[in-house]
Specification:
two-stranded antiparallel sheet; globular; 5 helices; 34% helix; alpha/beta
């Protein structure tokens, strides 16, 4: 019986999330499956306005693709232990919960070992030796707040300057100007898993 390889996987949740897989020091990125649907509004040219939404039927295709790309591989998956945002509409909470549930199903299909960690836990670990990016607090609040997306972008620019964190690498935009925060988060969770769950 052949010995399974061990890969580490980071999954950033949500419809625009990403999966990063690390095996033997090499990284592979997978965007979440999406498709476009009509919003019910019209553009100035009369065509229907479209928006990307999570494609639940694409989950099976993505799981099969990952299995083809990583045969005979055991996955240790880091996922965020996330919950609905207080004050969000019922529709938004249901939609987010459905998407996260489908993404968890994808990991079940991969027979991954799933480790759920809070965003604060993996960020505190990954951001421990870099100066945090601070931005003004939202309206009606004083002071500043931690811009986690900005800190993540600063970290990968410092430690992995040659990695491609563009959402769509085929587009001719500089690596630094087109960093996709969802891709960065999945990558940093993957690194967190590799360093803490070998």
């Amino acid at each position: 019986m052949s010995v399974q390889r061990r890969a580490h996987l980071g999954l950033d949740p949500g419809k625009t999330g990403f999966i990063t897989i690390m095996l033997d020091g090499k990284f592979t990125f997978y965007p979440m499956p999406t498709h476009k649907v009509e919003t019910g509004k019209k553009l100035k040219n009369g065509n229907p306005q479209m928006k990307p939404v999570f494609h639940d039927e694409g989950v099976m295709s993505l799981a099969l693709q990952i299995r083809r790309d990583f045969p005979n591989t055991h996955f240790t998956a880091i996922v965020e232990d996330v919950h609905g945002i207080v004050g969000s509409s019922t529709t938004a909470v249901f939609s987010f919960g459905f998407t996260v549930g489908m993404q968890r199903m994808l990991l079940f299909m991969l027979r991954a070992e799933i480790i759920a960690v809070s965003p604060q836990k993996w960020m505190n670990y990954m951001f421990r030796d870099i100066e945090k990016v601070m931005v003004p607090a939202p309206k009606n609040k004083s002071g500043v707040k931690h811009d986690t997306k900005g800190t993540g972008a600063a970290l990968v620019a410092r430690d992995w300057p040659n990695m491609d964190f563009r959402k769509d690498p085929s587009k001719k935009v500089s690596l630094r100007d087109a960093i996709c925060s969802d891709k960065v988060d999945s990558f940093l969770m993957c690194i967190y898993g590799y360093r803490n769950y070998k």
